[in-house]
Specification:
globular
Length: 381
């Protein structure tokens, strides 16, 4: 009986390994001409944006991705704080010479704080998360909060603006640049408004944003990234570019539980500064830190990281639909709400791919592998 059990365990292990390889292991897809990406992000130390930064740097180290730069926008945090966290991130990873950090838009095209306050008071609900608006805007370096391992010591923000960097990169590599849009879309809206000639030169945009057929998070109807700047979202979604949306519809079904958290945070053979920070910043609810009690049923979202996974392995998307997508920009309960049309769309919309379901086991293997590799990363010569 024991031999049979061992044989079954071995067979299951082999099958799992082969299945992951077939889906595209992050260790098996170095490329002669890796995809070129700009990460447009409301960056944070090691939330979902920061996690994506780590994963992208590891993919670049193995030669399967080329990160042209990180462009920062206000969203989760004010611009200055996001830039500070991004600078420390690339320095911590040892990629500060290869991946520049560019400061973009500090304010949304639409939504000032007075409007937000009026809407939230008149139309309550949602989780109440309003990102940068929840705290005073930092006016100088003395107002910034250092990551747990301190500010960057020798890495500086690039002198070129994020908008100019996006424009220059797209013109330098026509038809080759993918933008991972994992924050509010203000930078992209400004770049394409000021330089519409780049629109046909952008290869594709992959978003984490919107709530198409599910409730929102910040409000009952709207997802945070697109709610923060609805005008920018409406502008960019109408551009005639190949676009893929990873909305709350799918991210609500791909969550980190205690078992997944432990694979990143508590593998004794894979302890790095990244896993330590992951533990410090994501351990509440799992390790009972920061006043939270451990809860075996606790889960949390890992939103933005799905965009990078989809770029590298589109087969991770097990269910997609083709829809025309729009965003409401009117004052009221639906401000920032996304809507998908399968037919008879309003004029000016672009048809795009909307991801509905993911291959969670394959994605989780991809996610854990990249977050637990050694750092600093070893970039190719």
């Amino acid at each position: 009986m024991r031999r049979i059990l061992l044989a079954l365990i071995w067979a299951a292990s082999v099958a799992t390994t082969l299945n992951f390889a077939a889906c595209g292991s992050s260790r098996l897809d170095a490329r002669s001409d890796p995809p070129k990406v700009i990460i447009d992000s409301d960056y944070n130390t090691l939330g979902d944006d920061g996690q994506l930064g780590v994963m992208a740097a590891q993919l670049q180290a193995q030669g399967s991705l080329k990160v042209l730069g990180i462009t920062v926008v206000s969203g989760n945090q004010w611009l200055k704080q996001g830039v500070a966290d991004a600078l420390k991130s690339v320095e911590r990873l040892g990629v500060e010479q290869q991946i520049g950090v560019y400061a973009g838009a500090n304010y949304a095209l639409s939504h000032d704080f007075a409007t937000i306050q009026q809407e939230l008071k008149a139309f309550p609900g949602g989780d109440g998360y309003i990102g940068a608006w929840s705290k005073p805007e930092p006016k100088s370096a003395s107002d910034l909060v250092a990551p747990p391992d301190g500010f960057a010591t020798h890495t500086n923000m690039q002198s070129q603006s994020a908008i100019d960097f996006i424009v220059e990169s797209v013109k330098r590599y026509p038809g080759e640049v993918t933008i991972l849009a994992i924050g509010p879309l203000t930078n992209i809206a400004l770049a394409t408004r000021e330089h519409p000639e780049i629109v046909p030169l952008i290869k594709q945009i992959i978003y984490m944003g919107g709530a198409i057929d599910v409730p929102g998070n910040t409000t009952p109807t709207a997802e945070f990234n697109w709610w923060f700047d609805p005008e920018a979202a409406k502008t960019v979604l109408r551009l005639p570019i190949k676009q893929t949306v990873i909305p709350l519809d799918v991210t609500d079904t791909v969550k980190m539980d205690k078992a997944l958290y432990d694979r990143v945070a508590h593998d004794p053979a894979k302890q790095t500064i990244i896993t330590q920070l992951f533990k410090t910043l994501n351990g509440y609810g799992f390790d009972g830190k920061n006043g939270f009690e451990t809860n075996s049923n606790y889960t949390t979202n890992i939103w933005d990281t799905l965009t990078l996974a989809y770029l590298m392995h589109p087969s991770f998307a097990t269910e997609t639909v083709e829809e025309w997508v729009n965003v409401d920009t009117s004052f009221g309960a639906n401000d920032g709400k996304a809507r998908g049309y399968t037919s008879s769309p309003p004029p000016g919309l672009q048809k795009m791919t909307v991801v509905k379901r993911f291959d969670n086991p394959a994605f989780f293997d991809f996610y854990v592998d990249l977050l637990t590799r050694p750092v600093p990363v070893r970039l190719p010569d």
